[in-house]
Amino acid sequence: MKKNIINKFIFAGLAALAFTACGEPDDEITSNNYSRNFSPVNLEARVVNQTQIRVNWTPSEGATTYNLEVYNDSMQFAGSPVKTATVTASELPVTLKGFEGEENYSIRVQAITEGNDSRTSKWSGIAVQTGREQIFADLTEADLTNTSVTLHWPAGERADYITIKPGDIRHDLTDAEIAAGTVTINGLTDDTDYTAVMTRGTKTRGTMKFTTPLNLNGATKVEAGADLVAVIAGAADGEVLALMPGEYTVGADAEAAYKYGSLAISKNLTIRSAKSSDRAIIRGRFQISAGASLDLNQVVINGKETSGDQAFNYTEDGEYDHLNVQDCEIFGFTKGFYYVNKAAKINDITINNCLIHDIECSGGDMFDCRAGAILKINITNSTIWHCALERDFVRYDDKSSNFEGVQPQITIDHCTLNDVSNLAGKRILYVRFAGNSITFTNNIVSNTLANFSNQSSTAVPTFENNNYWNAAALNAEGGAGKFIDTTGRELDPGYANAAGGDFTVSNEDVKFYGIGDPRWIK
Asked: Which alpha helices (H) appear in 459-507, and where do they start and end?
């Protein structure tokens, strides 16, 4: 079973090319001349932070230091090196800086013994290509308007022009803008995802993705403290509600023992924060009736002191289009995230770029469908922690006889799942609906006793590029359940502060392979 394989033999894959440039292969492979150092083996070069190169190798016995040279070519080692260094084994791996983006570089290393030149080894070599430069500074709210963006980079760093897409807007940079390291570009459209690219010659110097703020002229502005129940009741089908910063409390029935109630969604609505940097907070739940769909964007939903039920409850038999939850934080609910205990046929439930935490799941499972059919469940680019403490993660009971032709597709991708379903015998995928298919890719799962599934009807997922830490039942040989992920790695992600909700990854290999919620890879 594949365990913690991190390209240990990348040098072997390039051996023929490397030795063609650095010496005769037969001399290196067959020589028994122990009077000289052997060439460094397992030479590895990785590009980190786009334009830095991390180099590592297995130290040679008897060597005291190593000569390292970098050339601006692809295994030619022609002319003079652009960078040289003398490295000791204790300094490995060594990270080299100062390279240009989108360039080919060749690195070669030889083992030396100080004071004895006759023991100097032949060279070992490898080639890499750097990534695209990123010299743009992060944007602030002040840098964005409905129709413009102000971009910043280190003063004096040169480039020729900036393009923005969609729209194919091109701005040729002036000497004054380059000297100041800033430019404002107009002509954009509100509530639009853009990508700005800075170019010099044929090289990219910076890429910045951003979304222009919502133009409130196209939505209903809702002031903080407004009666959200009344606002939703009076909204037109398809309306966008833009919530100004503040807290929106949903009152409970006067006789209820809990403090906050629910919002009845009986039409197609979008609810979003007007300002992404200061998000609206909703204290309450959502009750969704037949024919309705709901889009939530950049809001915080606090379930504490509600009835103890799920955040999203489907209340009627019938057909539903979608539930789309984007870039939200949701926490504090007792029973679970969603609950489908009616003969409801839902086209799509998508949860993307979200933070979901502290949902105990007492009396229910996390993503819980018992009597309905959800055609597509997509959970992506999200972090979910301290949830379903002693319950199943995705529960999907078999009501296929009531929904002819439905074959559910479940996708969980680029997520960080920590302390979920943390009880022996509980399942990440308690899926029984006939004809299901599952994709489970690029995820970190940590600190759980759960297995994947013990159900014969749960499809074996498509597994790829996952990492398991302190989660042995999911990928260890002999692990519990119907199947395990035999391709998974076992690397400690090195979370910055999991207890505090900071899952920033410090493990360079986890970052290199791009595993988990992308927000934590920095």
From this structure: 472-475
pLDDT at 31 (0 to 100): 39
Q: Are 279 and 248 in contact (CB under 8 A)?
A: no
Q: Which two tokens stand for residue 225?
A: 């403290």
Distance CA 369, CA 344 (A): 10
Q: What is the pLDDT of residues 65-91, one digit of tens each?
A: 999 999 999 999 999 999 999 999 999
- Strands 193-200 and 161-165, by their bridges, are antiparallel
Contact by Cβ (8 Å): 336, 361? yes
On whether the CB atoms of residues 330 and 285 are closer than 8 A, the answer is: no
Backbone torsion region of residue 361, taken as left when φ is above 0, otherwise alpha when ψ lies between -120 and 50, otherwise beta:
left
As given in the structure block, the two tokens for residue 191 are 């509530």
| Phi, psi angle pair for 54, to nearest 5° | -100, 125
Of 168, 162, 176, nearest to 207 by C-alpha is: 162
What is 377-419 written as a DSSP string? EEEES-EEEEESTTS-SEEE---GGGSTT---EEEEES-EEEE
Prior bond of 493 cis (ω within 30°): no
Give me the residue label for tokens 């920033």.
504
With a CB cutoff of 8 Å and minimum separation 6, the contacts of 475 are 1, 466, 468, 484, 485, 486, 488, 490
- The tokens describing 316, both together, are 């009627």
Mean of pLDDT values over 361-389: 97
Distance CA 42, CA 501 (A): 37
Q: Look up the pTM and report it.
A: 0.77
Which residues make Cβ contacts (< 8 Å) with residue 492, sequence separation at least 6? 469, 507
